[in-house]
Design goal:
The complex is a heterodimer of chains A (about 300) and B (about 290). By secondary structure, chain A is mainly alpha-helical. Chain A is built from 12 helices and 2 strands, in the order H-H-E-E-H-H-H-H-H-H-H-H-H-H. In chain A, strands 1-2 form a two-stranded antiparallel ribbon. Chain B has 10 helices and 2 strands. Chain B is globular, with a radius of gyration of 24 Å. The chains are: A mainly alpha (about 300), B mainly alpha (about 290).
């Protein structure tokens, strides 16, 4: 083979791999632009102020169709906040246990446990919300069937835990040994070292972990669809049925006629979800990145 | 109390709290697996695994759903594995630290955070409408393929990173071209690791429901899909139907438990295979 032909071949191969690499950017951009283009027609009939500030969502009303997203945004945020209240302390606790307390043999056994938990499909978690957590919540709080925001929060906490645990543990393990050795040499106990040296040093990683867990909770669909009861009213507490943005898209997209304002409005909800998770992930990314740069 | 004794007690209580958190997480997992296992195994018969549903899904089996999930996972793999591996090869072997490379990496990280239902919406527009594949097993597989792409890329890049630079340099020093060095001295060592990481991503895709809801999964089909443009039944969607949409929910609850058990075994089976392969691989590399 002549050198020239070989150079051409090498360039072609490189170009092929480059195309595959750039695909990630194109897909992300494609998702965003598709959502924008498909939501756009919705706003010929819906006022932006109605979409974001009204609590009434009733697109199939015979008198006047209403497209207010506020109840669902509030539901999503409420269920997510509940999940984080449960998952953050437990998640950081487990991460600290794995990095600072557990014997390495125990750790070898427990890490796959976290991976298995992450591997359970969301629809199975939702099913357990119906058959296991629902009846338990109904019994403890004396409410209907137990399909409410609390149920959703508990399940989302379980689903966010693996993310929070593994990233927090990585960041605790990345704290330089010299920090903890210095602290121990000054007479601090292992607990004091953990709480006053390692946790603050790994804080940015832990914040990123929490943000990523939050992103997962906001975007999770099947679990909340099955476990939160899906009532369309504004949420009045953790023991009422709520309908999140994701659940609403899943419920209504199957029945909505193509090329209607309602159809486009569901894509607008998709766009809101995309922007919210994108923002959360971006913050996580910036925090994590800063932290890695400082380490180097 | 003496300060030293207090320090000791605080530590004991603190570590106890951490241990409790760990026990709680393990307990939740065991509770999940026990509940599904104990109430699901009764439904598992040969008929359940090999026959189609009968009598309005109150009897019979779930074979079309098992087959559908298998088929859609194969399509997912066919899209996401070659593309993901190639993208990883670009990032790890060719790309320099430029602004564009950073943008690609940022996109990959953000893609893995896009909600699964948003992938479903994207699939409806791109594959079902624009490319005219209709609601079909092909559209669903491609949608899941895009969703797994960031995981495949990340896992493949991890595997490529474990190949020492001296392997590449050895080939280059002998006059090999870049691609020759990658093909003969990098890929043979990286591909097993790439595949195990990929299987973990595919296992997650196999258990996903939201992206296939509107791109091809069917409520009920008495027969198997005969072409890629047919709709299909899938295990996760079938579980959702049996748990929430069926006209006789309490009557079919044992079947729902059975479906959940089969789905968990399917997904965790793929997970286990990957974890065991990875373990063997690491031992071999040492």
């Amino acid at each position: 083979m002549t050198k020239r032909r070989r150079d051409v071949q090498e360039a072609a191969i490189r170009a092929f791999f480059f195309t595959c690499g750039i695909l990630a950017v194109l897909v992300l951009l494609g998702i965003f632009l598709t959502l924008v283009a498909t939501s756009f027609p919705a706003f010929r009939q819906i006022k932006l102020s109605e979409f974001f500030l009204s609590t009434q969502w009733d697109p199939t009303s015979p008198e006047k169709a209403e497209y207010g997203l506020l109840s669902m945004i509030a539901s999503t945020l409420m269920v997510t906040a509940g999940a984080l209240i449960l998952a953050v302390p437990i998640g950081i606790g487990v991460a600290a246990y794995l990095s600072d307390v557990a014997h390495w043999r125990v750790r070898e056994v427990l890490k796959p446990v976290i991976e298995i938990l992450a591997g359970i499909p969301s629809v199975v978690v939702g099913f357990l919300g119906i058959v296991l957590f629902g009846p338990a919540i109904a019994k403890v709080f004396h409410v209907g069937n137990g399909l409410n925001a609390l149920n959703g929060s508990i399940l989302l906490a379980v689903m966010a835990l693996p993310t929070i645990i593994s990233i927090s543990e990585d960041s605790l393990n990345a704290v330089p040994r010299a920090y903890s050795e210095a602290s121990l040499a000054l007479g601090a106990s292992r607990w004091q070292t953990l709480v006053r040296v390692k946790l603050p040093a790994g804080l940015s990683g832990i914040i990123a972990a929490v943000m990523l867990g939050m992103g997962r909770a906001i975007g999770e669909t099947m679990t909340v669809l099955m476990a939160t009861g899906n009532a369309r009213s504004f949420p009045h507490g953790f023991l009422t049925a709520v309908r999140t943005m994701t659940a609403n898209v899943a419920i209504e997209l199957g029945e909505v006629p193509y090329d209607t304002t309602h159809y486009y409005a569901l894509f607008a909800i998709g766009l809101v979800l995309f922007v919210m998770t994108f923002a959360v992930n971006l913050v996580a990314d910036v925090v994590l990145h800063k932290y890695q740069e400082r380490e180097q | 109390m003496k300060p030293a004794a207090r320090k000791k007690i605080v530590q004991v209580i603190g570590f106890l709290a951490l241990r409790t958190a760990m026990v709680l997480v393990v307990a939740v997992l065991l509770l999940f697996l026990y509940d599904i296992g104990s109430k699901g195994h009764g439904a598992i018969t040969w008929e359940f695994l090999s026959k189609a549903p009968r009598k309005g899904m109150t009897a019979g089996g779930i074979f079309p759903a098992i087959f559908g999930t298998f088929l859609v996972t194969v399509i997912t793999a066919l899209l996401s594995v070659p593309l993901g591996m190639s993208a990883a090869i670009y990032l790890n072997e060719y790309a320099r630290q430029t602004r564009l490379t950073r943008l690609i990496r940022l996109s990959i990280r953000n893609l893995s955070g896009v909600p699964s239902i948003v992938y479903g919406l994207f699939g409806v527009i791109l594959f079902v409408n624009v490319m005219r594949f209709g609601t079909s097993v092909l559209s669903a597989g491609l949608t899941l393929g895009l969703m797994t792409l960031p995981w495949t890329i990340t896992a493949s890049e991890e595997a490529l990173k474990t190949v020492p630079n001296s392997y590449r340099e050895g080939a280059l020093a002998l006059g090999a071209t870049k691609w020759q060095s990658i093909r003969t001295n990098v890929l043979p060592y990286a591909v097993p690791g790439m595949l195990t990481g990929t299987v973990l991503g595919l296992a997650r895709a196999a258990g996903e429901t939201a992206p296939i809801l509107f791109t091809g999964a069917a409520f009920f089909l008495p027969f198997l899909p005969r072409s890629l443009s047919d709709q299909f039944m899938a295990l996760p969607y079938h579980l959702y139907i049996m748990a929430t949409q069926h006209h006789a929910i309490l009557q079919v609850r044992p079947l729902a438990y059975g479906t959940a058990l089969v789905l968990i075994v399917f997904v965790l089976g793929m997970n286990m295979t990957a974890v065991i392969l990875r373990y063997r691989l690491r031992r071999k590399q040492r």
